[in-house]
Amino acid sequence: MKILEIKDVTVHFQNQAILQSIQLSVKKGEWAALIGESGSGKSVLASSIGGLLPSELRVSAGAVYYKGRNVLACGKEEMRTILGAGISYVFQNPQSVFSPFYSIGKQFEEVLRTHRRLTKQDRRKKALEMLEQVGLPADRAYSSYPFQLSGGQLQRASIAIAMMLEPELLIADEPTSSLDSLTAASILHLIKKMQDKTGCGVLFITHDLRQAKKYSDHTYIIKRGNIAESGPTSRVFSNPSHPYTKTLLSSIPSLRSTPDRLPVAYGRTGK
Ligand SMILES: Nc1ncnc2c1ncn2[C@@H]1O[C@H](COP(=O)(O)OP(=O)(O)OP(=O)(O)O)[C@@H](O)[C@H]1O
């Protein structure tokens, strides 16, 4: 079942097309990767899904269906309900998710107050449970202010708050770009774990080809506002058809030449 279906979406800034006739879909439980270089239109596409485009950008054609409902035609109130409970975001910069003026726990509880009918005690219990699930010391994180957590810890908290209402679609917009590689790997592992637990669809926006290859079922390559190529990840990476995809893949030689497992000489002799 398709959770998200983007049909022929075109976005303009004044008379310049930033996205052109985009087609993309994400099924329940699927991990789709959207790969493209800087400025190709990844974030504009992510924003258009949740109706989060800045006012100077306009969707000039097409539709974005969330479970069959065109979100581009939804009113503000309906969109507010869909966002959070149906579609959630994790951004590159977790600071943008949290207010610096309130503790993390208070901000979790505020989301629950808006979307769920729970007692104060149950809101606190749920917040602590989510913080624990993402591997944070729950009590400390709950009472911390955002600046008291490291970048990696804050990204974990942002995943916890994004998953708290069990959304059906998680849009992860370059969630690891500001993190060191070890922390980045643990964050992607965590998103995968949360997906396995809830069965949500994931739209993973990245320029990291290795991570896309490792996690995604389906890959979309975007170039200057157009989908240059799409298909099952294994096919796109093993047998790319578009010259642009070939160039992207060949820019990281080890991606295609490094075997998934260590060679016998290193892996199995115990030496
Ligand atoms: N608010 C805006 N007004 C005008 N043009 C914009 C606006 N936001 C983005 N653009 C333009 O749209 C194009 C796509 O930008 P976008 O931010 O989606 O790229 P991206 O692929 O996410 O890049 P990055 O990987 O660097 O985040 C760029 O040419 C950018 O300059």
Automatic annotation (TrEMBL):
<dbReference type="GO" id="GO:0015833">
    <property type="term" value="P:peptide transport"/>
</dbReference>
<dbReference type="InterPro" id="IPR003439">
    <property type="entry name" value="ABC_transporter-like_ATP-bd"/>
</dbReference>
<comment type="similarity">
    <text>Belongs to the ABC transporter superfamily.</text>
</comment>
<dbReference type="InterPro" id="IPR017871">
    <property type="entry name" value="ABC_transporter-like_CS"/>
</dbReference>
<dbReference type="GO" id="GO:0016887">
    <property type="term" value="F:ATP hydrolysis activity"/>
</dbReference>
<keyword id="KW-1278">Translocase</keyword>
<dbReference type="InterPro" id="IPR027417">
    <property type="entry name" value="P-loop_NTPase"/>
</dbReference>
<keyword id="KW-0547">Nucleotide-binding</keyword>
<dbReference type="InterPro" id="IPR013563">
    <property type="entry name" value="Oligopep_ABC_C"/>
</dbReference>
<feature type="domain" description="ABC transporter">
    <location>
        <begin position="4"/>
        <end position="249"/>
    </location>
</feature>
<keyword id="KW-1003">Cell membrane</keyword>
<dbReference type="GO" id="GO:0005524">
    <property type="term" value="F:ATP binding"/>
</dbReference>
<keyword id="KW-0997">Cell inner membrane</keyword>
<dbReference type="Pfam" id="PF08352">
    <property type="entry name" value="oligo_HPY"/>
</dbReference>
<dbReference type="InterPro" id="IPR003593">
    <property type="entry name" value="AAA+_ATPase"/>
</dbReference>
<dbReference type="InterPro" id="IPR050388">
    <property type="entry name" value="ABC_Ni/Peptide_Import"/>
</dbReference>
<dbReference type="Pfam" id="PF00005">
    <property type="entry name" value="ABC_tran"/>
</dbReference>
<keyword id="KW-0472">Membrane</keyword>
<dbReference type="GO" id="GO:0005886">
    <property type="term" value="C:plasma membrane"/>
</dbReference>
<protein>
    <submittedName>
        <fullName>ATP-binding cassette domain-containing protein</fullName>
    </submittedName>
</protein>
<keyword id="KW-0813">Transport</keyword>
<keyword id="KW-0067">ATP-binding</keyword>
